[in-house]
# Entry
Amino acid sequence: MVDWFSSYTDQSQYYTRTKVQGVKITCEGDRKVSQNPMLWIAVVVPRDHPVFMQKTPLEISRLVQLPVLVKKYPPDRAWKDHHQSYDNVQATFLHVDADAKSQGWGWAPPEWQSYVGSVLIVRQDKKDLTPQQAEVLCHFCYDYMQSKFEASLEGRMTRDKVMSFMTKQKFAKFFKDYQKEQMSFGNHWASAKDPFDD
# Structure
């Protein structure tokens, strides 16, 4: 039986050929049950995992040229009846509608606003995605872009202006700035891989 959500424990050539590294973004319930405070956990999945059946990457990720796909994990029986345990703000903001012509502009779809749970995030091109890269993408959507969406919704910024911030160049700079900030707390971010380095 194929293990769709096995933990990432090896970087051998076998995994390079047959599996892809993605990231599990954990919800509040999973963090409590596992007693693991980590939000971003590296995992490996088969290259034919159902997540890759999705054809449309998340809009913000597409605009910054790091197109990613996301799939929800099934809820754990230990917390599935507790609404708050599904909270996953990081996954919610990844799904903010960035289509300037959309009526849902600036908001995540209803199904990503509640009962989210933990999610799997992978690169659409099936290249490895590291926890640091997923973390920066989440913070880009929330820390960097959310205030701009709010300004647009309140009429203080045009949608075209908001769109101008969602580029590869803006994200690459945000990645470097975020890495530098994290390195001030320790050297564990020194080796963080730039998502645009092949």
